[in-house]
Amino acid sequence: MLDFDSFKQRYTIPPEVAKTLQEQGISAFPDVAYAEVQYPLTLLEKGVQIIDSPGLNDTEQRNQLTLGYINNCHAILFVLSATQPYTLGEQRYLENYIKDRGLSVFFLINHWDEIQNRLIDPNDYAALHEAEERVRQVFRTNLTPYCQVEGEDRYDDRVFEISSLNALRQRLKHESLDGTGFSEFITALNHFLTKERAISELRQAKLMARQAYRTVHEACDRRIPLLSESVQDLRQKIRSVQPEFDQLVTIRDQFKDEIRIVGERQASAISNSFRTYLPELASSFEVDFSRYQPELKFFDFLQKGKRQEFEASLRLAFEKYLLDKIAAWSLTAQQQLDASFLDLAKSATQYGESYTQVTDRITEKLTGQKVIPNANLSAEDTSPRWAKWAVGLYALTTGDVGTIAMAGTGVFNWKQILLNFSGAVLLTSMLYAVTGVFLGPVGMALAGLSLGSFSAEMARRKVVETMKAELIKLLPQIAQEQSFQVYQAVKECFDTYQQEVVKRMNEDIQSRKAELDELVRQKEDHEINQQAEERRLNLLDNTVLTQLHEVEDAYDYLIGQPMPLVSAA
Q1: Residue 348: how many CB atoms within 10 A of its CB?
Q2: For a Cys-Cys bond, which of 87, 348, 351, 461 suits 390, CB 3.0-4.6 Å?
Q3: 139 within 8 A of 85, measured Cβ to Cβ
Q4: Helices (H), 71-176
Q5: What is the 8-class DSSP label of residue 120?
Q6: Are the CB atoms for 497 and 345 separated by under 8 Å?
Q7: Cβ atoms within 10 A of the Cβ of 325, count?
Q8: Collapsing DSSP states into helix, strand and coil, what is residue 110?
Q9: Could you give the CA distance from residue 451 to residue 472 in angstroms, rounded to a whole number?
Q10: For residue 260, is pLDDT > 90?
Q11: 3-state SS, residue 560
Q12: pTM (predicted TM-score)
């Protein structure tokens, strides 16, 4: 661990060195993935972690790194400037990586005080009001779509006009942050963290507590009636439920096959869509690329040093263009996967109902008593644990973490897998294949223009026409080659899902068998005192139920519902 001054000295390089390394594609600190800074900030004491990601003017590779953080955070703080309202880069980033992805975004419009400073007469308050309203209208028009929460417009709770410089000055003087916009922002952020996020996470805890109680309660109900059975009778009853255990295996295999079939179908469909989508980019390239194309200075291009600079800027422009196009396609692919996992979640619910019916029959045959629905559990809690996990996974894909009720650890985040084919691996290979070829023809095309016929517009058209001609030749081949990676990545999503579901189903089946085998062993070894064991199981059942009520009461209190005055006994 380093103190902050030592860290700055060891890991800070001059801007000109950083620019040179970036142009050469060399990492300044190849052995450092990230830096973790510890600071006594009140907000951090609440368990919050803040990740300072690269900005929009950083390299596209680092922008891809930022996307990995975006898909795994509770909220995004997106900083804009009042002096440059809603730039093309900001629009591009929000449209491609934030829009329609179920993310909670807070927008901080910095430099709000600069609006007044830039007026001819800073004391002309009528002009100030008019200037501020113009800026507000630009942001409200463009940011409102990102401030919708379950159909409700939350713009005023998500967008804040701030002055970071004034806030820093007042902080150093130990003065209030009033008037800087930060007080309002911190209040809204605290509400989000302590209410919205806390409610979501506590609801998850409530569902897991219900699942735990159900597991314990059912195990107690199965075990207590069997305590009085002889070893011979117990063995006979276990043999009698073997057909039901075979039915559980059949249900497992049916769901396993359905996941495999859906996965293969979606992998083929999405890889085919990619193979079709990529070549079609050439048809609209002239129009689409215009917003990315760097300023073309023909005479600079004729100079060797400037030519390399132009080629670097052209490569970067094409990289941004291609990333945006793949991001647009990947959003469509994500929506297709969302729909597929929603269908599988519905299937998991249906298989879970069949599975529960079979396990109820096992309990009835073992105990000789009909299974009566537990009044302490809602219909939401009647699915087996593996089905809750399978259904809860869909909630993860939609950002509703609170509906996930998974036992154990290890959340399967298939959105991270999705990044594999819309992120650096796929794009890097495509960029090398494309840019490595078209820069040569582009250079020759420009060099072939005579000075007499030259105009900036002619040169621009020549560049785009040459790039388009190369893309028409290259994209079908690249699409064919890369579509297999797409197929593999999508297939991996469903294969992982299938493995996790099957693992949990196997664990449930084996635990039920092991429970019976252990009871037989204990009876054979005379380890069970019937009365003491029955008291222990009843106490365990009541203890877990009491803990469930405590979690539910805490959740009801948090969301503002009155706590019920009932006994947990």
Answers
A1: 27
A2: 348
A3: yes
A4: 88-93, 114-117, 125-143, 155-158, 164-172
A5: S
A6: no
A7: 19
A8: strand
A9: 29
A10: yes
A11: coil
A12: 0.68
Do the bridges between strand 159-161 and strand 76-81 make them parallel or antiparallel, or are there none, so unpaired? Answer: unpaired
Q: Edge to edge, what strands does the sheet with 76-81 contain?
A: 76-81, 105-110, 159-161
Quick one: tokens of 212? Answer: 């735990």
Tell me how many degrees the CA angle 495-496-501 measures, rounded to the nearest 5. 100
- Most confident range (mean pLDDT) of 26-30, 101-105, 141-145 is 141-145
Please report the pLDDT score of residue 393 as a whole number.
Answer: 55
553: tokens are 């009461």
DSSP state of 177: -
Residue 392 and residue 385: Cα distance in Å, rounded? 10
Per residue in 143-194, pLDDT (tens digit) is: 999 888 767 888 999 999 999 999 989 988 988 888 899 999 988 888 887 7
H or E element at residue 474: helix 456-524
460, with CB counted inside 10 A (0-12, 13-18, 19+), is middle
- Tokens in use for 567? 């006994």
Q: Return the number of other C-beta atoms located less than 10 Å from residue 185's C-beta.
A: 21
Per-residue b/e over 125-140, b at no fewer than 16 CB within 10 Å?
eeeeeebeeebbeebe
Rounded-to-integer distance, Cα 522 and Cα 516, Å: 10
Residues 320/92, Cβ–Cβ less than 8 Å:
yes
Residues 340 and 452: their CA atoms lie apart, in Å, by: 60
Tell me the one-letter amino acid at 228. S
CB atoms within 10 A of CB 349: 14
d(CA 73, CA 98): 12
Task: State how far the Cα of 398 lies from the Cα of 392, in Å rounded to an integer.
Answer: 10
Measured in whole angstroms, how far is the alpha carbon of residue 381 from the centre of its chain? 26
Q: Which residues contact 415 (CB under 8 A, 6 or more apart)?
A: 71, 334, 396, 397
CB 296 within 8 A of CB 463: yes
CB 165 within 8 A of CB 182: no
Q: How many CA atoms lie within 13 A of 455 on its CB side?
A: 4
Nearest-10 Cα torsion for 367, 368, 374, 378: 100
β-bridge partners, 105: 76
The answer to whether the CB of 57 falls within 8 A of the CB of 89 is: yes
Confidence of residue 406 (pLDDT cuts 50, 70, 90): very low
**Residue 145: strand, helix, or coil:** helix
Whether 490 and 421 have beta carbons less than 8 Å apart is answered as yes
Candidates 296, 326, 325; CA nearest to 313 is 296
Contact between 248 and 558 under an 8 Å Cβ cutoff? The reply is no
Residue pair 27/18 in contact by the 8 Å Cβ criterion: no
CA distance 25 to 410: 36
Contact 232, 459 (CB under 8 A): no
Pairing of strands 105-110, 152-153: unpaired
Tokens 């089946």 correspond to 509
Tokens 């029959």 — which residue?
A: 361
- Please spell the DSSP secondary structure of 402-425, one letter per residue: GG---SSS----HHHHHHHHHSHH
8 strand-pairing partners:
none
CA-CA distance, 505 to 439, in Å (whole number)? Answer: 55
